[in-house]
Amino acid sequence: MPALFLLLFSTVLAIGVGIIILVFRRRAECRRDSAALSSQPESVGASGRPTFLAPNCWLAIRTRSTYAVQVALGLHNPKPCSWIQGLAGEEKLFIAPPVKGWILVMGSGLPEPDADVDVCFRFLLELSRRLGQVQYFSASRVVHSHAWVKADGGRIVRAYAWAGKTLWCQGAMTSTERELGLQCFPYFEGPDSSTFSQPSAAALNVERIAFLASRWSIDPSRIDTQFLQMERGIAGEPSWRY
Length: 242
Known about the structure:
Layout: H1 2-39, E1 42-44, E2 50-52, E3 57-62, H2 66-73, E4 76-82, H3 83-87, E5 93-95, E6 102-106, H4 117-131, E7 134-139, E8 146-152, E9 155-162, E10 166-170, H5 175-179, H6 201-216, H7 225-230, E11 232-237
């Protein structure tokens, strides 16, 4: 009987120690997230609460299943990851938890049209075959290269990419693009280079891509910081090869 009580006591003690370790670990993660949160560039959203600048490149996928996105991407070495860690840009790919029916994917592992537009095209086409509606946004505030793509069911509905010249122009310009004043040029044509005193069309497009994202799906910069601190997603490495 004493041996039984000793065993029971040891089990309860081990469980208690495990819970304490988990609590302290979670508190440490929260402190790291809060520190990272305070170091991120802030803006103020419509709610009056601080929000953050959108990443340079991201996907918006119409689904609530992070697992479906993980499988479609063939994510290698998946691990839990907070929003703040994902936004820090240290992960190759970060699959965010669903927001309003959309899942955002961001990270340096995403292909970009200015590096290889054909790779970007095939990647988005295949991803939309697997997941349905997939949107892609890219905007460099330094060199003003940019892109926006809407794919659905393995078909490119609309795409435009610019990096010193038009790299990709497919589908009819949408009413939302026209309303936002986005400027798109045919292949081998570009803006009038004589108006140097005016903001370039490329720079204006970059500034307006977040508005396009908010109209088409969701703008990452408008996600409330309270949600960023509470929810967790999945990080990992890309597996596609084209």
